[in-house]
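Handout, page 2. Input:
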Amino acid sequence: MKRLLLTAFILISFVSCVNDDDTIALCETPSEISTTNVTNNSATLNWTNTNDVKDVTIEYGVSGFQIGTGTLVTASGGSIIINNLLPETTYQYYILANCSVDNVSMLSVVNEFNTSADPVVFQFLPLLSQLNLFSGDLGDLNISPRTFKYDLNTILFTDYAHKLRVIALPDGAALEYTGDGFPVFPNGTLIAKTFFYNLDETDLSVGKKILETRVLIRENDAWIIGNYKWNDTQTDANFTEDGSVVKVNWVNPNGGNMTVDYQIPAKNDCTKCHSNAGNITPIGPKLRTMNFEIDGVNQLQKFIDAGQLTNSPSPSTIGALPNWENTSLTLEVRSRAYFDINCAHCHSPGGFCDQQSTLDLRFETAFDDTNIFMRRFSISARINTYNPGTSMPLIGTTMVHTEGVDLLQAFLDTL
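Output:
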């Protein structure tokens, strides 16, 4: 009996299929789906459609969107360019084939791509945000993947302010090794330094106060300089050539309450330190000052591995400026390192103080040629108190750097 019923079912099905004029051919789901030419705001979606009718519908949206809530587009070829996308965003999309009004394919599996960051703009614009140096909310100071951060082994004192240092290079360009001083910076290089205070050094969750971002851009083998002052809401910074004063209250690492009338320099003040022999120049990013380990990895080696520094030997063969806070070193070595980063940009041949002073405070200068011994009493007098126009440095600080002065005075007392 079971066999008779099965045979009858097969015969009925065969007759039904043969006589059914409404049978619809299967609409195949697009395959070989890929994404190419992804930029900061666009992407090309590609697929293969084996159906006779080549129309497809694509639904896309920010990763995690629910089907039916995304953006719908139709296409009839094997690719389409999607525009007006957000930078640094993960998108997902699905494709289905439209064989007819009543016959569509299954949805493809989900496909995904990530847009890139907005390109850095290598020119001075009214707002810092327009330069695309940071990702997301500007006040978070998350640097763009198109820039790279650098740090200095021994740093210049600026009233205890923190500094975030970044370099941006044109696509395909790199710094070039020529020794332990400044590398060769290609035209288009942008160097930016953002100054800020943690409002409470004992509790970083309290937040920070961002004051200014100083920018150097290399054009036609010369540097141009500009400055951006941050607004009170910490959402952006405005280009300015004028100096100003911002009052900041913060708690230092020891829990002490601190106050500073922080001075944002005018453009003309910036050029006093950032110049040599009449030419604007950076101060900090010499290879010897960046030649140290961060989290167990040599910073220069990291640049080399990333293709950001070319023609360089092993960092172990490049000179390294000592960290003046390293108490295992001698007073002389630590003091000379402090002089180098804080003072030598002015007190060196071609520097701002070259004609007014006999001091040459570069680390590589032999001690007998620095005139430190001859000028030791003058140095002591001008670093131990803060008197505008007399104290050293002449600009850039509004207070005595207690830790630095203690170091220098201890060294001078040995002479």
